[in-house]
Write a structure and sequence with these properties.
14 helices; binds calcium ion; 516 residues; five-stranded antiparallel sheet; binds alpha-D-glucopyranose; single chain; alpha/beta
Length: 516
């Protein structure tokens, strides 16, 4: 057993925005296949594809109408098979999204549910009578507003933790649990290496429908949401683990468990449950060594206790791009480049989001360009996630930069001519070159990939740690402070910035090989 997923680097592909093969302005499976060699050269171990299933697109694919087919917008099942085959030829694993918390309103189950109060499929969803003329309780949608919408036909309300077109399934229903096993098998049979489980902490809802505490806080995590993180999830994931174990080749699950409390997360990654859980704690930290170190320790202690591997994530399709979060412009990029060396030196599994390796910033879109339901459901109070979903600039001097031959579904900024993959491939100082060099070192050096971890003393404002294996020690030093500090001893293997030399200037990072 290699347990490949314990030290892999997986690259998230937001399918709509990666590469368009047919000129309709929307990325698709054939587009992805045509760009896989870029990922091979980048040096990642596999890809995670966001949903490409049949969907009316109310949440760009996270509203699934058929779990076992490809939306014509993205291609066909044959295209999917070809993509998996090419990826496997290139030694790239393929992880696909599964969206078990809710279906689209266009799923036949939901249509049946609306057709008659007696239809058995109605029990697959959470329909409940209202309270005092309003919804059954005060639960809120993560996208804004109430989590309940009235079904005028029956006078009952249905539950949706996200958009009203995303109907929460009732996981206490036996048919739901049985049918999702078939969905898992369908894709395992087609060769996928694993699943990313969407909002994995939310499938079962508290059956007593108890009100949430008010005022409802606005946080990135769901620790306070008493409706979710229910005990029934653990037997479910044990069952899913059994299903994956029936297949050869170490298939895996990575749960999107949106909890800050790492002890609670650890329960989901016990040896017979999910293999991995996204860890968003570092993503939400400021650029500050002290708090980052505390977060890293807290995660490792909690997950080590159950024998699980930590994962590290700085970007995904739901959050503002890293250089922008770190202050934007030159300073933001400088920090984001230093964070790349931190990410790829930490022990565990790393996730990259498409465009992170190009150092892309969040795009400022005009209100009339926005498409995210979050923007509309909050009447613009929250801008939503479109700014990190702008298509990838591949080559050329002007939009659409080789992404499509048509008009990209989100506007691409003119300034990206400097940041195309092709331009960065020609520039040894580019962010792409930094990621390539870091990933190559991580592949070559077992110490970096799966060596033992140890903190080293460092000046205030720095993170310094060592990874050791087979007599080789590689030290990672990151300076988040505002003064230069001395560089640890050793041979400099890689630096996030050309200014790193005798010293480690502010907002830079370095990898060094210790001389024994
Ligand atoms: C997850 C996805 C997000 C989606 C939501 C509802 O958080 O990452 O993009 O909107 O689930 O499916
Ligand atoms: Ca297309």
């Amino acid at each position: 057993m290699t347990e490949w997923w314990r030290s892999a680097v997986l690259y998230e592909i937001y399918v709509r925005s990666f590469a368009d093969s047919n000129g309709d302005g929307i990325g698709d499976l054939n587009g992805i296949r045509s760009r896989l060699s870029y990922l091979r050269e980048l040096g990642v171990d596999g890809i995670w594809l966001t949903p490409f299933y049949t969907s009316p697109g109310a949440d760009h694919g996270y509203d699934v109408a058929d779990y076992t087919d490809v939306d014509p917008q993205f291609g066909t099942l044959d295209d999917f098979d070809a993509l998996v085959a090419t990826a496997h030829d290139l030694d790239l694993r393929v992880v696909v999204d599964i969206v078990p918390n809710h279906t689209s309103s266009e799923h036949p189950w939901f249509r049946n549910a609306l057709s008659s109060p007696n239809h058995p499929d109605r029990a697959r969803y959470v329909f409940r009578p209202g309270r005092n003329g309003g919804p059954p309780n005060n639960w809120t949608s993560a996208f804004g507003g109430s989590a309940w919408t009235l079904d005028a036909g029956s006078g009952e309300f249905y539950l949706h933790f996200f958009a009203p077109e995303q109907h929460d399934l009732d996981w206490h229903n036996d048919d739901v649990r049985r049918d999702f096993e078939d969905v898992l098998r369908f894709w395992f049979d087609r060769g996928v290496d694993g699943f990313r489980v969407d909002v994995a902490q939310a499938l079962f809802k508290a059956q007593d429908l108890r009100d949430m505490h008010e005022p409802v806080p606005r946080t990135w995590h769901a620790d306070w949401v008493t409706a979710v993180n229910q005990p029934e999830l653990h037997p479910l994931y044990r069952r899913w683990r059994e299903v994956s174990s029936e297949y050869p080749g170490e298939r895996m699950y990575v749960g999107e468990i949106v909890l800050r409390n790492q002890e609670a997360v650890a329960e989901y990654v016990r040896p017979d449950e999910l293999q991995l859980a996204f860890n968003f704690t570092l993503l939400w930290e400021e650029w500050d060594a002290e708090s980052m170190r505390e977060t890293i320790d807290r995660t490792r202690v909690a997950l080590d206790a159950v024998g699980a591997t930590s994962t590290w994530v700085f970007e995904n399709h739901d959050v503002t791009r890293l250089p922008t979060r770190y202050g934007g412009a030159d300073a933001g990029l400088r920090r984001a480049r230093a964070a790349a060396l931190l990410l790829l030196a930490l022990p565990g599994t790393a996730f990259l989001y498409q465009g992170q390796e190009l150092g892309l910033e969040e795009v400022e879109l005009r209100d009339d360009e926005r498409q995210d339901p979050i923007f509309f459901r909050t009447n613009g109070a929250r801008l939503g996630r479109d700014g990190c979903r702008v298509p990838i600039p591949w080559e050329g001097g002007a939009p659409p930069f080789g992404f499509t031959t048509g008009t990209p579904w989100l506007r691409m900024p003119d300034e990206w001519s400097r940041l195309t993959a092709a331009a960065q491939e020609r520039d040894a100082a580019s962010t792409l070159a930094l990621y390539r060099a870091a990933l190559a070192l991580r592949r070559d050096r077992a110490a970096l990939r799966d060596g033992a971890f140890e903190w080293r003393d460092g000046a205030r404002g720095t993170l310094v740690f060592a990874r050791t294996r087979d007599g080789e020690t590689i030290v990672c030093a990151v300076n988040t402070g505002d003064e230069a500090v001395g560089l640890p001893a050793g041979e400099l293997l890689l630096a996030s910035d050309a200014s790193v030399g005798g010293a480690l200037p502010p907002d830079t990072a370095a990898w060094l090989r210790e001389e024994h």
